[in-house]
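Check these lines:
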Amino acid sequence: MRRRNFFRKTQQKRYASRTFRNPYFREKIDKRPAVILYGVMISFLFILIVLIIIFLKPSFKINEIHVVGLETISKTEIDDALRSYAGENLFLFFPRQNRYLFNQERLVVYLKNRFTLRDVTIKRIKNKIEIQIVERSSFLIWQTKGKSFVVDLEGVVIRESEEEEISSLPIFVDRNNVEINIGDAVLSPEEISSVLKFEEHLRAQNISYKQVEFDRLAGKWTGVLTNDGYRILFDVTGDIEAQAQRLELIKKEKITDVSKLEYIDLRFGDHVYYK
């Protein structure tokens, strides 16, 4: 009897522990996360295809660049720079030469970093780019450390000079041989203006010269080396008219033979020194 009850209780426990499902009322599985994931993937692919069509389609490619205003910079140099810029890719494979990815401000900065320019104006008309360049005007040759550079009226180094420019432009020599780079300012506009005024007075007094020299360390002077071999030292921050008058006066009253002259120093007001 006990044995029968034991088996009955065991059966009841097994029956109670079983899980039952109604075959007509099965539990529904939530498929929304998978649907959302598929939707996101399809949307991403659609957007990617649209971007590829827009940014890689040949009809949207900038196919003409017109540059005006070049004077000393060669067209080959500009073309190489523009080709290099257009060859850059945005987001790895979208080229900047696409008209929708073209950035005028970025190209202006790019060109000004490559060349010493006064101004750059850029217009885009559909698939055509028009670039107006204003170069810094060549004015003088700045010589230092055995090299010659073209400098504009604001004292900014434009580029290294060509051989023919050395004979056609005024020569300014840095006696301290300070190393410089393209774009550096080696003179102030005021210094250049003072030198120009002083040169006018030299020509009026029939004094011919080879070069203008600057020494900013040993006494900080500016001088003109004349064709007769002597130097005229003057103060670019002082009264140029007064210094020129003192030069004319001392040459008339004190100096009779310039072949023995080493220098005339006009930097100290009414006191003119010469040797």
